[in-house]
Design brief:
This protein folds into two domains: 1-50; 54-210, no CATH class. Helices cover 40% and strands 17% of the residues. It has helices at residues 2-50, 70-73, 178-210, and strands spanning 64-66, 80-86, 89-99, 107-114, 119-126. Strand 3 (89-99) and strand 4 form a beta hairpin. Part of a membrane-bound complex that couples electron transfer with translocation of ions across the membrane.
């Protein structure tokens, strides 16, 4: 009798486990497309904050090339560069970058750069900087990153591409210099990357829009 009871309970437990797994799998499959759509919408929102819809007519999420110099950009792995075009002509690129010199770890950001080499905008995507101090690099916490808009490799001069404490033109935060210094350096490296790869990025964007293979 004991053996029969154990066998029966084992069978019931197996059926319950299979039923539960089926429910979980069904829930995942039914929500997977929605999850992907939500992620895509969030990514697109971040891109449009830098290069707004009125400046381009392509889907930047679908117009990408992979980074080929992760060291210059500080990246841990290759990531996508998003390309913007208007009527088939290159408008700008949104380049990922990482500063490994944050106060408490990596600072991941994206840098939008116009065709003429000026900055369209910067957004910090993730960091672990000190709340109330270093987190002012977040656009929702302060407009500090907007100081990069319209800057370029020559504006200011290279020796001025730093925080004021280091003789540069960009503000640091009260009680926090490491974080803004790290972000400023990463933005400058993104500009260098764009300058080195400008023609390739333009060609890739315009070739894709022309429909060439």
């Amino acid at each position: 009798m004991l053996g029969q009871s154990i066998s029966r309970n084992s069978i019931l437990l197996g059926i319950f486990a299979a039923f539960t797994t089926a429910i979980i799998a069904g829930t995942y499959l039914s929500s997977r497309d929605q999850i992907k759509a939500n992620i895509r919408a969030a990514e697109e929102k971040a891109l449009l904050q830098i290069i707004p819809a009125e400046r381009h007519d392509n889907s930047m999420l679908d117009s990408t090339v992979s980074t080929d110099n992760v060291d210059l950009l500080g990246l841990r792995e290759a990531k996508d560069i998003y390309l913007a075009t208007q009527n088939g002509s290159f408008v700008g690129a949104i380049i990922p970058a990482t500063s490994r010199e944050g106060y408490t770890g990596d600072i991941d950001l994206i840098v939008g750069i116009n065709r003429d080499g000026t900055i369209a905008g910067v957004r910090v995507l993730s960091h672990r900087e000190t709340p109330g101090l270093g987190d002012a690099v977040e656009r929702k916490k302060s407009d500090w990153v907007d100081d990069f808009i319209n800057k370029s490799l020559t504006n200011p001069k290279p020796e001025k591409w730093g925080v004021k404490k280091d003789g540069g033109v960009f503000d640091q935060f009260t009680g926090a210099t490491i974080t803004p210094r790290a972000v400023t350096s990463a933005v400058y490296k993104a500009l260098q990357y764009f300058e080195q790869n400008r023609e390739q990025l333009i060609a890739a964007a315009e070739k894709e829009q022309s429909g060439d293979e």
